[in-house]
C-alpha cells in the first residue's frame, strides 16, 4: 500500500473514532436519564407499597443497568480517545516516512544510514498500526457487551409494563414510567448498533 493510501486509510479511521466518541456521549446522556428515572421509579414504588413491589425490583435492575452502561461507555471513551491519539501520531509518522522515502529516491548514491532510518520508521509504523487494531477489537467487544446490556434492558422495561398493570391506583403513573423506560432503551439500541457498524467497517 502506498504512503498516500495509508494516509487516506488513517484519516478515515481517525474520522470514525471521532464519530464514535460523539456517539458515546449521546449514549452516556441517555444512561444518565435512565438512572434518574429509575431513582424516581423506586421512590414511586415505595409510595405505592405492596402493589408495586415487583415494579420496584425492576426499577432497581434498570438503575444497575444504567450504571453498568455508563461504566462501559466510559471505558469505550477512554479507548476511543487512545485510538484518536494513536492514529494522529500515525498520520504524523506517515508524513515523515513519505519525506524520507522521497529523499531516499532523490539521492544519487544509496545511503546506508538513511536506509536504516527508513526501515526503523517502517517497523515503528507497523507496531503502531497493530496497536490501533488491538484498540479497535477491544472497542468492538465493549460495544457488543453494551448491545447485549441494552437488549436485556429492553426485556426489563417490558417487564416493568407488566408490573405497572398491578399498581391499582398507581397503575397509570407506573405505566407512564415504564413507557419512558422503554422509549429510552429503544433510543440507545440503534445508537449502539450504529457504533458497532462503524467499527466493523474499519
From TrEMBL:
Keyword S-adenosyl-L-methionine: no
Signal peptide: none
Entry keyword annotation includes Cell division: no
Alphabetical list of InterPro entries matching this protein: MCPsignal_dom (IPR004089)
Domain Methyl-accepting transducer: 30-66
Top-level taxon of origin: Bacteria
Keyword vocabulary terms for this entry: Transducer
The protein's name: Methyl-accepting chemotaxis protein
Organism: Vogesella amnigena
